[in-house]
């Protein structure tokens, strides 16, 4: 079990797959989404759901962990997140099945109120982005060494990651691979690497200890 973690707390469509792929290449065990306690126990790096919604509780439960916030230009993020939320809408909102309860909670709380009209509205989505960004900034205001903020499309972002992780300097031209371009969301599934940690076992979620400890 890894008691200290690196949590990727950027919202969906900010480059979570790209940074997870880079962390695999750096030798970390990585989960892109985590829905079982076994996943949390064995992954050193975890991204996406439920991380972007639960980073405060995770910080308390996994002391001495590090956090990476991913930013993205609004004109690039908005059409991408809108397309994703449109695809997810029915399975996030339905009562008779759909996505697992962790996914539903995270999306409904982060993009609240999660309605068909709201997820079509650029102003609403921008407010959700800014609200989350502000929460992250305020939470880590007195702890700048625990938080790295990068835009994976920027040329110096990979080097900033290495510096944050106290790793040897890399090739100055090294950069994050651009994955899931054009609205695709399957790049992580297609990656083959022994350090990938499955999000679930046989498609089933389990009680997450950090949530149980907070009474949820």
Structure notes:
This protein has helices at 16-25, 37-42, 51-61, 74-93, 101-110, 122-139, 157-164, 187-190, 209-213; strands spanning 6-8, 30-32, 45-47, 66-70, 147-150. It is α/β, with parallel strands linked by helices and 216 residues long. It has a five-stranded parallel beta sheet, with helices on both faces. β2, α2 (37-42) and β3 form a beta-alpha-beta unit. The protein is globular, with a radius of gyration of 17 Å.
Mean pLDDT: 91
Characterize the largest beta sheet: strand count, sense, and whether it forms a barrel: 5 strands, parallel
Structural class: alpha/beta
Shape: globular
**What percentage of amino acids are in beta strands?**
5-15%
| Whole-angstrom Rg | 17 Å
* Widest sheet: strand ordering: 2-3-1-4-5
Helix tally equals: 9
Helix residue percentage? 40-55%
